[in-house]
Amino acid sequence: VQLQACGGGLVQAGGSLRLSCAASGRFLSMYNMGWFRQAPGKEREFVAAITKSGHLTYYDDSVRGRFTISRVNAENTVYLHMMSLKPEDTAVYYCAAKSSATVLTIRSNYDYWGQGTQVTVSS
């Protein structure tokens, strides 16, 4: 499966953005999906994940209550709606897909990655 992330940009602190991750090549419904982010000089870290059906979601504590992950399998797209953005949310955001049922919060469990989209939050 190929993943294409978009929707990043420059936003002021307190603002909102919605990231999209479109899949091609295979049906998105076959995969659990995750969003990760990587800030300059830091390792790529888990942000949010959603199961194949969309029934279960997981969030890192740093974004819980501000970010919402969702999916529309009929559109082959996963979304990350980000609200109340903070400067520390600045990073390149990546979507990722995995077919197995292993832990969704671990980066190495994912099989496919998109190219990333830059999110910059100014103070």
Care to describe what's here?
With 123 residues, the chain is mainly β. The chain is 0% helix and 50% strand. It is built from no helices and eleven strands. Strands 2, 4, 5, 6, 9, 10 and 11 form a seven-stranded mixed beta sheet that branches. Strand 7 and strand 8 form a beta hairpin. It is globular and about 40 Å long. The N and C termini lie far apart (37 Å).
In a nutshell, what does this entry contain?
The protein has 123 residues and is an all-beta fold. It contains no helices and 11 strands.
Keyword list:
mainly beta, seven-stranded mixed β-sheet, 50% strand, globular, 123 residues
Q: Give the total of beta strands.
A: 11
Q: Count of helical segments?
A: 0
Fraction of residues in β-strands:
over 45%
Compute the CA-based radius of gyration: 13 Å
Element pattern in H and E: EEEEEEEEEEE
> How would a textbook summarize the main sheet?
7 strands, mixed
- Note poorly predicted spans: none
Distance between the termini: 37 Å
Mean pLDDT: 96
Large-scale geometry: globular
Structural class: mainly beta
What share of residues is helical? under 10%
As an assembly, this protein is single chain
Write the layout of secondary structure elements.
Elements: E1 2-6, E2 9-12, E3 17-24, E4 32-38, E5 45-50, E6 57-59, E7 67-72, E8 77-82, E9 91-98, E10 112-113, E11 117-122
Parallel strand pairs: 2-11
Antiparallel strand pairs: 1-3, 3-8, 4-5, 4-9, 5-6, 7-8, 9-10, 9-11
